[in-house]
Amino acid sequence: MKTLYLDHAATTPCRREVWDAMEPYFLAEFGNASSIHRMGRRAREALFGAREAVSRVLRCSDLEVVFTSGATESSNLALRGVALAAKDRGRHIVTTRIEHHAVLDTCQALETEGFSVTYLDVDEYGRVFPEQVADAVRDDTTLVSLSHANSEVGTIQPVAAIAAAVKARNPRTLVHVDAVQTVGHLEVDLREWDVDILAFTAHKFYGPKGIGGLFVREGVQVQSLISGGGQERGLRSGTESVALAVGLGKALELAAAEMARESAHWTPIRDRLAAGLLSSIGDSRLNGHPVERVPTNVNVSFLGARGEDLVLRLDRVGVCLSTGAACTTGMLEPSHVLTAMGLSRPWALGALRFSFGSASRELDTDALVRLVQAQVEQLRSTHYRPRVRTVMPAMATRQ
Amino acid sequence: MSRFAELFARFLAAYEDDSVRIPCCGLRFVRRGEPDPVESFAASPTWTEAFPRSLASCGFSYEAAKGGWTMRVTAENIGCPAGAMSLGLVPADSGKNFDGGCYVKPMEKAATPADFTAGYVYAPHQSGHPEFALFGAEDCGRYETLEVARRAIAAMPLIPPVMDAVYYYHPALSQVEVEPDLVHVYCTPLEAMRLIQGYCFPSGERFVMSCIGIRGVSCDMTAWPYVNNDINGTFLCLGARGITGWEEEYVGFGMPFNKFEQVVRGMEKSRRGFPYSLFPKMTQIVDGRGGREASRT
Lengths: 399, 297
Prior knowledge:
The complex is a heterodimer of chains A (399) and B (297).
Chain A: E1 4-5, H1 16-26, H2 38-58, E2 65-68, H3 71-85, E3 92-96, H4 101-111, E4 116-120, H5 130-136, E5 141-147, H6 159-169, E6 174-178, E7 197-201, E8 212-216, H7 242-280, E9 284-286, E10 297-302, H8 307-316, E11 319-320, E12 326-327, E13 332-333, H9 336-340, H10 345-349, E14 351-355, H11 365-380
Parallel strand pairs in A: 1-11, 3-4, 3-5, 5-6, 6-7
Antiparallel strand pairs in A: 2-8, 7-8, 9-10, 10-14, 12-13
Chain B: H1 3-13, E1 24-31, H2 38-42, H3 57-65, E2 71-73, H4 81-86, H5 113-117, H6 146-154, E3 163-169, E4 182-187, H7 189-200, H8 216-228, E5 232-234, H9 238-244, E6 251-256, H10 257-269
Antiparallel strand pairs in B: 1-3, 1-4, 2-3, 4-6, 5-6
């Protein structure tokens, strides 16, 4: 059975060119970048090359790039590292209700350690606004943390304007951006953005899993979370994975070169799929902003058909998708992102996320719409009753 | 079309309302030592070997009735010790570990079937077993005292522990030709009224339901009908609503398959005596000058 992979927001396949670039550093060039002999020197050069590649794409200094094990570690380092480094001048953090759990859970942990956190509400599209964020910033706010684009619904936040508003309110407040869904896909210009820390991860732009990065602007104080050999300028000790770093650098270079073309390719497909689903299937809705969203994301809810059931059924015919729902105690819980956007439980549980990329080049949107429609109808047939409208003017006479 | 699918279609048709949608599933028990009809079930287009989360018996019923899934439940994959006992998969004094099961996840220590039988789970603080509390230090238990809990448990029938497995499947979507032992039906109170009208039409005998707000699906809708060979109704329970997520508009019925046939025949015969179109429905929307808007999802 052929697989149609539509879950690129979860992870992407590693490109062959990336694998080829990495392979020598698993095999012949296995030196430790901290060693002073020739093997170490060659490893160090490769690491430097990877760092340079990242700095060129993000438009920052190579000295401002720290390699980590991935976005979760990057976000933990950003939040906890800044909170601890700045605790003498403030213990307040601002974030939003729709951040990734790597951010939210870290914030909740910091709350138990004496920090206070403001969780900003979002609008129906999942947006926050510059003035809204700035209003939440206080004299003791050390960090504002938000994502550039939401991983579930794809809504893009105006991070440049938000960062500017934050700095205008309190120049000492640092701004952390979770750019996991946008680095390699949308323009990220750290020369233009007044952003202090930015997280990303390779496996979202066709690089290997197990490596990510954190941009830390020169002069920003971050307390390291891992003690040891002092690698990564003391911010992240541990023998570097040269192979993975090389893979990250190569993947980002390739993604940046293709960014405009990919965006132009997927945007009309995204819009066609969304329009097809909404027009063919009643009681459905698009989640996220209709325009200000990443080119490769469609998130649609279907009333009366749970996203989990749809994912499992479509998997049987080779289509790989995801839903934002999660299981906690046993009951299926709707996505915290959709709930924060104001969706009721039935709508939130009926969400399905389609995210495109290289492994879905052969996507036939019309066929996919028919497939989803058939599954939704079958699921609805067991229990879902559409609204029946009956006007009863006689009710007007009741007292 | 299987007999089950045919009866289910007739059951829905008896309401004479195309908008009626009633979640329904069948249960087929596999006694130890008897042939397991796994091939018949595994051929179903909705067969799933492993659900992506832990489910109690009410959860399996939900997924079959609403999701259309076809599943095989055993003592190894059921997420609730009480459900395991009710279904006859384990004995009441079993010390089997259900760690990770959905019902015991909120507990500090996962209770065993024996702990349930002893009353420790339904009266945790009262019995000196706070580790089984579901709602922390404030949890007053499901019964006021340990003695009361034991009395309630004694009145919760269990299927004899001779079962290897239970299949849950949807009458139509499963496309399984195996006749169920029991049928689960979930409906609104209005639909329930019509069902009971049909069931009582030929006999004139009152329908009396037995429930206690605990083990609503595993006992009220499963063990009770199995042991008593009769239909029973329930308002479901803490687990069925709070863990599995059965929505507020549903009440439940469990019945042996032959009783389901009785219900369907009775509903068909009594159509002109209880015209369903007569009754105001939840989904009627008043034009803004009064009344209540509701929709069923």
